């Protein structure tokens, strides 16, 4: 199984599921009952009725004596009892039952298997880390709501519990905002896209776009909640705003708005101006996000904001002076503080990339997503801020999966299954007071080079399976993991996932038409140290 339960004993006996199987589930266990019933009906052609009366052959209940997200599964020849510490624990128990069944339980219709049986087991299980996430960048390339829901199913199957949606960036604005409709009407599409790394000099002439209506997002949120997955939205401000500024030039540096939504990758030169009206516009956007997303944390981005555009703009220079800031670079921290305060007034918390640590002290409840190694994780946690690690050289899913030239558009360092399996969000030497602030980790799937859902599968799996193992159990042993992964690939196949074969990309997963730009680990570490030490982000088109 993946992740491997903390404690599991099995016997040779089995419990055979048949048409008489009834599921008991009530209250907080109902979502788990519904999930299991849906699989048994869809893939096993069993009637699987669900009742709120306890004690039926598959009895799913809440047991508050268990910690949050923990569960216990007991299968004997007479039936099944699943106890969950809460709704999420019960759902994890249901997912474990599915993994104990043959892989075809993950198919979308029965394919003729006559007998479905569960081994008799005793399992007691719970996660090491409470934030176990994947970020999908839907700004660089848009993925339809059905693809997001499918990814949520796959995260839930792996007991991952956070889907962070990167909803805006230079190359697209994907969330409909009623008060400012041009964000999606203009910012939701671009006329062309760079193909591969800039050094290849290739751009297509193919419009790309799409956006989520508020109801699409509400549906995604509700779908995820029924599966124990929290959807965390992020709008990226005050850099990475090319699409927003193309839609509303008055948000940007005067005279610098792009004529169209940019189609090139990298750190662009579009930043927000720091007028009061721009802050108010961003607060309008946050108001609507808060209305759609129940998540306590709301992402405000704040990564990679170059300061040159402000330095070269007399109005921004004057604004920094008027605000009493020591330098123009401090505008970013000032702006972030305004958004943090606005979210706090709405009863929410800001989530920002680790650059929020560079500004004036963040609010004590800001959640930091650290992406440049363990230094920022330690810095945030020792400062008493909650932090999630997304260390790029461990868990950036856009990075190449081997040193092979056949990898599609190879960028970054090698992040293979074993690299992800070794991921530990907890930095060495952290103090006892700081350790509880490390909530967990997440893998980031940036999609500059991922332009269709089939390739989302290629980049995400099976590395996300290794992520699930690392965050649920702790860094794993590749030799122990390998045979479990082989079995797990059968589940992914049954679920229709076009994962990257362990031996390398299939011919149709290669991109000989597009150039990459690989880096060695030493190169990347030196680059990161330079960036972190200077506290400065240059404009770098990739
Ligand atoms: C990031 O990779 N810019 C968070």
Summarize the structure.
The chain has helices at 30-44, 87-100, 145-157, 182-185, 214-225, 242-247, 276-292, 308-311, 314-322, 330-345, 374-382, 392-395, 417-421, 453-460, 463-473, 478-494, 521-534, and strands spanning 7-17, 23-25, 50-51, 58-62, 71-76, 79-84, 116-125, 131-137, 162-166, 168-169, 172-173, 189-190, 208-209, 230-237, 266-267, 297-301, 349-353, 367-370, 387-389, 411-412, 438-445, 517-518, 540-541. By secondary structure, the protein is α/β, with parallel strands linked by helices.
Give the oligomeric state of the chains in this entry, treating copies of one chain as homo and distinct chains as hetero: single chain
The major sheet is characterized as: 8 strands, parallel, barrel
- The secondary structure category is alpha/beta
Bound molecules: acetamide
Low-confidence stretches: none
Principal-axes geometry comes out as: globular
Round the Cα radius of gyration to an integer and report it: 24 Å
Q: How many strand segments?
A: 23
Number of helices: 17
Instruction: Enter the CATH topology name of the largest domain.
Output: TIM Barrel
How far the N terminus sits from the C terminus, by CA atoms, comes to 39 Å
Strand content: 15-25%
Estimate the helix proportion, in percent: 25-40%
**CATH H-level superfamily title of the largest domain:** Glycosidases
Question: Per CATH, which architecture of the largest domain?
Answer: Alpha-Beta Barrel
């Amino acid at each position: 199984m993946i992740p491997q339960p903390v404690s599991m004993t099995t016997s040779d006996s089995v419990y055979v599921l048949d048409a008489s199987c009834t599921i008991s589930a009530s209250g907080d266990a109902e979502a788990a009952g519904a999930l299991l019933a849906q699989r048994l009906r869809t893939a096993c052609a069993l009637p699987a009725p669900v009742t709120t009366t306890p004690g039926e052959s598959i009895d799913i209940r809440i047991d508050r004596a268990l910690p949050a997200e923990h569960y216990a599964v007991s299968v004997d020849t007479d039936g099944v009892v699943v106890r969950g510490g809460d709704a999420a624990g019960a759902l994890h128990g249901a997912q474990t039952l599915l993994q104990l069944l043959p892989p075809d339980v993950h198919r979308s219709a029965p394919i003729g298997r006559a007998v479905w049986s569960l081994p008799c087991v005793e399992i007691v299980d719970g996660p090491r880390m409470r934030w176990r996430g994947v970020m999908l960048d839907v700004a660089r390339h848009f993925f339809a709501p059905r693809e997001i829901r499918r990814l949520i199913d796959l995260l839930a199957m792996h007991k991952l519990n956070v889907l962070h949606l990167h909803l805006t960036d230079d190359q697209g604005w994907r969330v409909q905002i009623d008060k400012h409709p041009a964000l999606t009407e203009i910012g939701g599409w671009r006329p062309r896209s760079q193909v591969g790394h800039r050094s290849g000099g290739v751009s297509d002439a193919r419009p790309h776009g799409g956006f989520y209506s508020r109801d699409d997002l509400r549906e995604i949120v509700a779908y995820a909640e029924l599966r124990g997955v929290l959807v965390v939205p992020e709008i990226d401000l005050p850099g990475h705003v090319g699409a927003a500024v193309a839609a509303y030039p008055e948000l940007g540096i005067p005279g610098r708005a792009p004529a169209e939504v940019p189609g090139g990758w990298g750190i662009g030169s579009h930043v927000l101006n720091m007028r009061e009206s721009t802050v108010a516009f961003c607060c309008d956007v946050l108001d609507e996000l808060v209305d759609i997303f129940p998540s306590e944390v709301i992402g405000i981005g704040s990564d990679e904001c170059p300061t040159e555009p402000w330095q070269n703009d007399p109005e921004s220079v004057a604004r920094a002076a008027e605000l009493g800031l020591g330098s123009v670079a401090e505008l970013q921290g000032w702006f972030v503080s305004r958004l943090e305060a606005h979210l706090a007034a709405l009863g929410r918390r800001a989530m920002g990339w680790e650059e929020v640590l560079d500004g004036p002290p963040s609010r004590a409840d800001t959640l930091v997503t650290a992406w440049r190694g363990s230094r920022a994780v330690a810095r945030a946690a020792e400062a008493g801020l909650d932090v999630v690690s997304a260390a790029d050289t461990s868990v950036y899913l856009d990075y190449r999966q081997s040193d092979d030239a056949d990898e599609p558009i190879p960028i970054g360092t090698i992040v293979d299954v074993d690299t992800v399996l070794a991921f530990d969000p907890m930095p060495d030497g952290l103090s006892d007071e700081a350790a509880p602030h490390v909530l967990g980790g997440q893998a980031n799937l940036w999609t500059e080079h991922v332009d269709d859902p089939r390739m989302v599968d290629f980049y995400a799996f099976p590395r996300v399976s290794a992520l699930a193992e690392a965050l649920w159990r702790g860094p794993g042993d590749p030799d122990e993991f390998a045979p479990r992964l082989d079995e797990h690939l059968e589940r992914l196949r049954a679920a229709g996932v076009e994962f990257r074969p362990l031996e390398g990309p299939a011919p149709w997963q290669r991109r000989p038409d597009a150039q990459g730009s690989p880096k060695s680990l030493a190169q990347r570490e030196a680059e990161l140290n330079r960036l972190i030490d200077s506290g400065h982000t240059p404009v770098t088109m990739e």
